[in-house]
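INFO  loader      accepted 1 record
INFO  loader      residues=278
INFO  predictor   begin
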Amino acid sequence: MAFELSEDQLKTAENELKKYLPMSQQVYGFLVIRNRVRSDPVRVLVDRWPQFRVIMCKPHGEQKSDLFKDALLFATDAAVLEEILSKSSVFDWSKYFCVGTSVSHTEIFKAVASAKGVPCKRVAKCYLMTLEDVSRLPPVDSSGISVSSLDESHIGLVNQTWKFGKVDVAVGLIRNMIANFPSCCVLDAEGKPVSWILTYASGAIGMLYTLPEHRGKGYAKILVSSLAKRNHALGYPVYSFIGEENAVSYRLFANLGFTEDPSYREAWFVVNEFQIFP
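INFO  predictor   done
INFO  writer      dumping tokens
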């Protein structure tokens, strides 16, 4: 039903996914980075080759912390997707997992979960916002501000402020992001981060946060602009997912030149959430 791609096939799949942008953005972005950076092990599976209809990026679940690293999925054929979810062993529906994919697959996930008798819910629904031309970023004044990158000593701080964090199993995800992908932060006079933004394994930028006592100083604008330029220079796509309820972040990214694709929404589905959040 599904088989794993080789290193050479991953490069071919990256080029193939460009044809389906923006719908394939997250899986495409993941392969762009995966083909250039070696981080945590991930299996990339397809239903057939080379004309695949379903492609999935699935982290290894060797440790409990690995379960918090989302699987990513892109499909051009809903019927094939439903068959794979229902009949293959790609996902163990008796355990916790989270999948990021198109919101258009909502009914498929609900139906398969219902048939298997397990709880499944959508935990996020987001706008896809991309920056097509980095050179058109508006100028930002960072004079007198210390901008750096996050390091491993900052994992706990990021985890405690991320809305999906505050649990031990999120630490592995954040550690992987800080160790392997670009990040930016503003440091105070004592060298401690007061505002930061990270890059996910898919290339999406996010986890943007500023400590309450440092808000209103323009730090978020500086960090989004800085990380966008850094990722672009590395050849990564520059984009972000903004929750539909997050009007503040939407305005920030829009004012920096990011544009929303009105035809597409990304969603995250969680199965057996009680195993992580009892």
